[in-house]
Write a structure and sequence with these properties.
Elements (H helix, E strand, L loop, with lengths): L4 H19 L18 H19 L12
């Protein structure tokens, strides 16, 4: 399957729309919500998703050293 720029733009737009729709009514302290021991907070999940998308972008653009960053 060939992935072109238009397809990537559609995928990213869908992610952005869904996240914006989801996040519009969240309380301000939701980023640090803890669902249980050993589970990621919403902020940690967002950081992970950002790292994955950055990694994919670097792979797509053939940028050297495309490694996801470690979380804090």
């Amino acid at each position: 399957m060939k992935i072109d720029n238009d397809s990537v733009q559609v995928y990213l737009s869908a992610i952005a729309f869904r996240f914006t729709y989801l996040a519009k009514d969240l309380p301000s302290n939701f980023a640090n919500f803890e669902a249980g021991q050993g589970l990621r907070t919403p902020l940690e999940i967002l950081r992970h998703m950002t790292a994955v998308l950055n990694f994919a972008y670097k792979q797509f653009e053939n940028i050297e050293e495309a490694k996801p960053k470690e979380l804090d």
